[in-house]
Amino acid sequence: MPGVRYARAPTPYGDWWLAWTPAGVCAGADPGWTEERFLAWLRRRLGGGVERGAAGDVPRQIDWRLVPPGFRRDVLAACARIPAGTTMSYAELAAAAGHPGAARAVGSAMATNPLPPVVPCHRVVRSDGRIGEYSAGGPARKAAMLLAEGVEVRDGAVRR
DNA sequence: ATACCGGCTAGCC
DNA sequence: GGGCTAGCCGGTA
Predict the structure, then answer these.
(1) A132: CB within 7 A of chain B nucleic strand
(2) How far, rounded to the nearest angstrom, does the alpha carbon of residue A113 sit from its chain's CA centroid?
(3) I need a labelling partner for A60 at 20 to 30 A (CA). Which of A23, A77, A83, A134 fits?
(4) In chain A, which ranges are E strands?
């Protein structure tokens, strides 16, 4: 799959690894990943033809090629519409995505989000306000990211 | 089919 | 508030 570029690019949460095609951003990985790890991860999913690009060339659009249509795409697309500085519970996101009652499965979909932090799965928290888990760096990073965009986080929970 | 498993939840102490 | 539980849904082996 030629035409895939990647770079360590600035985000509101620091420099993250991002990958893109002419169609849009298709993958992301947290700052803790080494370049080798991200590259290997990209090649396994997109094939060869992945090359380093310029951080300034990252498109704004999202390229959903790594998210198969269906439940996961529905949920991640709905997640992408959560405004910065706000949060939604797993149950609310399930309903917003057209799958009421699937809160538990939404957690699993977030856990396999291939494009953090572009698809802001860090804005999805538990119904009781507790921060919940975060695959791309753990709950502490999730809390820091929320704080960075103005969400009040106290004792591992957000205001509800 | 069938049996787990996991970024959850509501209900009940 | 805390802790525990059965129930929940979609993914994967």
Answers:
(1) yes
(2) 5
(3) A134
(4) 4-11, 14-21, 24-29, 50-52, 88-89, 124-125, 153-154, 157-158
CA of A12 to C1' of C9 (A): 33
Report, as residue numbers or ranges, the catalytic residues of A: 121
Biggest distance spanned by C-alpha atoms of chain A: 46
pLDDT along chain A (160 residues), means of 10: 90 98 98 97 94 98 98 98 98 98 98 98 98 97 97 93
Tokens of A126: 């538990």
Interatomic CA distance for residues A17 and A3, integer angstroms? 17
Say if pTM beats, i.e. exceeds, 0.85: yes
C-alpha count within 13 angstroms, C-beta hemisphere, residue A67: 25
